[in-house]
């Protein structure tokens, strides 16, 4: 009976293992689906729409073949469409049957020049390094990249923006084919086979024992004694069973075949998709709900994109700082951030020991607040933490149009206890209008009001709008003015006077809304120190002040000198309905100019 069960186990194991292997071989469908994109027209750019990329589920793998360098990038479809508005390109979309179809899109004809003017050919676009792309790739001859883009993003393929883009494109998606019972069938079959082997061995053992000597039987034949003196003669001894050595070898040979078979089958096709997924569905962690206002645009940048832009700005400004090249700095700086650098380059060119300004930090971004806007110009704020100096830097970046690079416009060091209630980077914030009536003070009045507070202190009509307890800058300015005035009066009180004044800067404010209906506002203020003589015979000399002497270009003046410092300031401005005051967030201050006082 044991042999019957052993044979049944062997048959069942063979069926199970065969079925499992068949699932992983002859019965398994294709793991991927590939679709070639036929492009007949030639153009410097090919755009694969997000609808094509998402026509099948799963990650998308692009393969582009051509001669030479191949460039690919992905970004928002709206941004890519705007960027290509002045260039010929091929757009790949889905037709009514769900098949990809390529359509040539010609650049608009240039406007007719006025009489007497020459027609200027538009410069070809350079795709590499654009701040619009969320990521970009470059490879030689063959480009392969795996993506998983949402439907609102598109993929751009090009060569160098002048030569025709590679037209041999294929997209591949995983089919999601799995064989969840292949693994259990193979392993289960191996276990059944092992059970059959055990039954077979037990059957052999039982059969051997059943052939042993019996007490009753036929009478044994008469035997004769064996002559032991005869050497080499046949002793007449007959071996009824093989030796122990032979039995052991036979058993090992018998057992080795199933063990090898089991080992081979056990590792056949046992990948993750060869097993049923029995794990439970993970429970999502509740997060704070952020309601996106209806009609709000997409965030200007993602966090990864913002990190890459900040790094590029830091690298290019560092190169400009080393070369003291204001034109190179202007490629990535604007407004007060650029004006301060230009003054620093002038001083460093003539004063060997004058220090450079602090480099633009490019460490990991702890906060990104992009403007939620689909048009241009667009802005984002970012905070960079420096764990070594335990200092955080806040900055604003602005992009004028789709073809321009982002430029740093404001930068300041945050106060130690700063907190900002802002939306997540994947939601973004709306820009607050300069004259918005919904804040305690409109953004375009913050600089004027705060300058009046610096000039008049508690006597200012705007003093009650600002939180004095958190305003470290106001207290620092008051101490600095008092100390410098005391020092000046010790030597120059009889022949001159020193006055201070703060005025609003010319740079437009940047304001992005917070979750509590307030706004983070960045403004500039110019602080001026003016030294003038008090009698007609006196002159003001600056021999001992190389900075003023270098910037003014003279060593003395009968009318005096005015030195101007640019302050970049960040504030939190609450909503008009709030009982909070305007809270100071951070500042940076550097010399801007020194001039002779005009009569």
From TrEMBL:
Stretches assigned to the DUF8094 domain: 298-595
Keywords: Membrane, Transferase, Transmembrane, Transmembrane helix
InterPro entries to which the protein is assigned, alphabetical: DUF8094
Protein name (database record): Glycosyl transferase
Listed GO MF terms: transferase activity
Lineage: Bacteria, Bacillati, Actinomycetota, Actinomycetes, Micrococcales
TM ranges: 181-204, 253-275
